[in-house]
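Here is the promised in-class demo. Please do not try to memorize the tokens; focus on the logic of going from shape to residues.
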């Protein structure tokens, strides 16, 4: 029947659980895909609408400027440049409100002589602009030979001031002339743009920024929806128009609500199923891990029981058959039998105490005692074993009277020394130190000079059935319950046990067991 249970568990873990997770994932994927497609369609429609609005407003400003350029072009007769003022100025304020001046330059000369300069409002800036035009702007204009009668625009920033000029070339006989229209950028920003864009205030937010992103017209836009940023293609091409529809925020909220409603139930079901699956997998893994640890525990305990029993049997048979050379050897063999018997008794006590702990029965017999006496008895029990391994047990025990269970603390002390004997390979001495604490309790310290305990093992070194990396690498036998039992004994006395191995210098290990003068639950 065991194999049927294993088969059922395998079918559950590897078929049903993945199938449920796959079904939930597919359902959630389809729902998410549908909502994403709806959201993309909505965003695309909003983006297209915003793009259309931005393109139309950009085109309107470009057309307005070009229309004024065409008015000026119809007034310029290169054969009679002196008549430019009479032909253009009467209608300039009405038909070309943003034009500050019109210039005609003879570009056949290296100095680009100004043949005509006409302005509706002459001022001191006119001479500055003439010099600026010839020295700074003219080199950036597209001039062709022979001249092409094609309207072009130059938009540049000079010394922090933005300039927009329209220009085209014409022939006066054999001489090429350049007609330049100087547009008032400040008037475009402060008068023309508010007129063109004022009707957008209700349904959108819009501004004009320069190449560095500085806002030149309109508010700062912090849009949650699509933001369209388009350059002026023909005239103010160093600037960009940014448009964000305010209606996109309402659409965004509506889409978010719809997405939450659509995915709410699926998400809740997915969370429940995934949480249940994780809990099931964790429980199964924990159960398998615990079963494996218990199997190792049984194997290790069996080996630990067999080793001292084999020694006791061997030396007992030698004594029984009389194959002993001398009385000294007889005493040695008897000492080995006693030592191995004590080791066997200690192991059985460990197992029995641990079995009580597992069943929740941890009765202790508290009485007045001295932790120093307990430590000396533990050392006497393990002295022969330490001598055989060539390890010196040093004890420095000052009287430390307190209320304790001497059998339990003797077992705990033996476990700590036993661990050092098994795992502290190469150590020549194991030090046991006992002293009273300032609060009236007692401190027991067991230290060695071995290789120390790996950093990865420190966090779980006191857990049941857990054995360190060194035990697996060197195949050191043990039950995995010694330190767990030490921890339980210390806590039952109201104390603690800690590993004081240094993280900076991991060589050696020191275990400290502290107990108070009187356990919290003890009563006389």
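The designed amino acids, position by position:
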């Amino acid at each position: 029947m065991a194999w049927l249970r294993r088969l059922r568990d395998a079918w559950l873990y590897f078929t049903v659980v993945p199938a449920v997770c796959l079904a939930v994932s597919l359902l959630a994927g389809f729902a998410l895909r549908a909502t994403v497609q709806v959201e993309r369609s909505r965003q695309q429609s909003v983006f297209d609408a915003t793009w259309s609005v931005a393109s139309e407003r950009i085109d309107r400003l470009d057309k307005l400027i070009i229309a004024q350029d065409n008015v000026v072009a119809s007034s310029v007769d290169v054969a009679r440049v002196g008549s430019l003022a009479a032909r253009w100025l009467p209608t300039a304020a009405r038909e070309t409100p943003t034009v500050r001046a019109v210039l005609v330059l003879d570009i056949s000369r290296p100095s680009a002589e100004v043949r005509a300069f006409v302005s509706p409002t002459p001022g001191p800036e006119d001479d500055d602009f003439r010099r600026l035009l010839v020295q700074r702007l003219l080199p950036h204009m597209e001039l062709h030979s022979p001249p092409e009668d094609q309207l072009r625009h130059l938009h540049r920033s000079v010394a922090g001031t933005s300039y927009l000029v329209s220009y085209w070339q014409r022939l006066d006989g054999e001489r090429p002339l350049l007609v330049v229209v100087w547009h008032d950028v400040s008037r475009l920003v402060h008068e023309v743009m508010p007129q063109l864009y004022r009707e957008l205030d209700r349904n959108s937010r819009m501004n004009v920024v320069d190449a560095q992103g500085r806002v030149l017209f309109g508010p700062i836009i912090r849009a949650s929806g699509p933001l369209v940023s388009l350059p002026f293609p023909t005239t103010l091409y160093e600037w960009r128009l940014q448009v964000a529809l305010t209606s996109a925020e309402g659409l965004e909220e509506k889409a978010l609500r719809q997405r939450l409603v659509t995915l709410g139930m699926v998400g809740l079901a997915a969370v429940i199923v995934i949480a249940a699956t994780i809990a099931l997998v964790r429980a199964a893994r924990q159960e398998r891990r615990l079963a494996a640890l218990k199997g190792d525990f049984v194997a290790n305990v069996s080996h630990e029981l067999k080793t001292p029993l084999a020694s006791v049997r061997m030396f007992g048979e030698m004594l029984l058959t009389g194959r002993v050379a001398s009385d000294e050897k007889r005493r040695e063999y008897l000492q080995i039998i006693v030592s191995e018997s004590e080791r066997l008794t200690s192991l059985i006590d460990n197992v029995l105490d641990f079995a009580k702990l597992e069943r929740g029965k941890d009765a202790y017999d508290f009485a007045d005692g001295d932790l120093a006496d307990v430590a000396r008895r533990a050392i006497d029990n393990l002295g022969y074993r330490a001598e055989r391994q060539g390890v010196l047990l040093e004890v420095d025990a000052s009287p430390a009277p307190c209320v304790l269970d001497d059998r339990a603390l003797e077992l705990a002390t033996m476990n700590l020394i036993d661990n050092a004997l098994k795992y502290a390979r190469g150590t020549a001495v194991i030090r046991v130190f006992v002293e009273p604490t300032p609060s009236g309790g007692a401190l027991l310290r067991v230290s060695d000079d071995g290789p120390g305990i790996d950093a990865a093992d420190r966090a779980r070194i006191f857990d049941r059935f857990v054995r360190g990396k060194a035990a697996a690498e060197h195949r050191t036998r043990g039950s995995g319950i010694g330190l767990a039992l030490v921890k339980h004994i210390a806590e039952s006395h109201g104390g603690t046990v800690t590993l004081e191995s240094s993280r900076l210098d991991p060589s050696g290990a020191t275990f400290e067991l502290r107990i108070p003068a009187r356990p919290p639950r003890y009563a006389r």
